[in-house]
Amino acid sequence: YVLKSSEVLDLLVPILYFLNDAREDSSKIGIMHIGIFILLLLSGERNFGVRLNKPYVTRVPMNIPVFTGTHADLLIIVFHKIIISASQRMQPLYDCLLTIIVNISPYLKTLSMVSSNKLIHLLEAFSSSSFLFAASDNHHLVFFLLEAFNNLIQYQFDGNANLIYTIIRKRQIFFSLSNLPTDMPTIAKFSTKSSGFISSLKSSPDKSEKKRSLFQTHSRSNTDDESTSNGDKLQQSTTVNSSMVATLPETPSIHKMTERTLAASESLNSPPSQRSNINHETSANLSQASTPASSNGGTVSNHNYSTDNGIWTPTSAWAQSWKGKLPLQTIMRLLQVLVPQVEKI
């Protein structure tokens, strides 16, 4: 009854409120587990994904950016907040959070600009070399996000203009991911620079967070010349320069952007009804969420990475084993078609 009526949203909003409230409180980790587990079960039902398209008008006081959109936007924004600002003990739950997004993605008709930016920011953070080479299963998070983007493009393209625009504007993220270096010198360089998943996630600036209001943007622009710190000046200069780019860089050809092998995961070939069953495969992670993720999980075989005194070390063979399977074809073809049209405007 709950799934067939809009009353499921009356259950969703309190859960998201408590998740957002408990994300930085280690004593409330049990609430996080229960709330995410409930949402994981609900996300496997089609009716839940469809109901998320209802506009979000009941403003519950939460420390999140102001937006105008649907309950799906609220869910994505809260999940982004949990992932970016949570403690390291929450990392094993990232698979579950992104699985929920993958399960509901085929049914989301219209995402707001705020939630679209949040999804792209997560991909930007998770696809950084320092994060990918920090643990053996970090690349799984990139697969989840790419699958969610593919679902939105394939099934809900017409209504998601905000997401498409954001993908075009941030297309360099996808180009960099498709051309990710897998040679040992580069891997070793980024591995030594990696200082943990929290720093990797927060190293990518979230511009939507920085532009919450016109007043804040105006205040920052007035204080650019008053900064006395060289580090602050460099960071502000980088932000200003990136925001003043008026032209679109040249889009490489499709064969240069992707591998020649078919870059699509097995789950992407199945319809949404079958793909939503992924929640059963990842729900087991909740029982192990209090411990760090296992380094030998996933589909990468043990011989593709090396260990030194029990410490995992990335190798070129390991990186190549999953890079060629990245489901980038759909997004790359979209960019190949739409970027030239945008350049003509």
UniProtKB/TrEMBL annotation:
InterPro entries registered for this protein in UniProt: Hid-1/Ecm30
Pfam families: Hid1 (PF12722)
Region Disordered, residue ranges: 196-254
Compositionally biased region (Polar residues): 228-245
One Gene Ontology cellular component: membrane
Protein name according to UniProt: Uncharacterized protein
High-level lineage: Eukaryota, Metazoa, Spiralia, Gnathifera, Rotifera
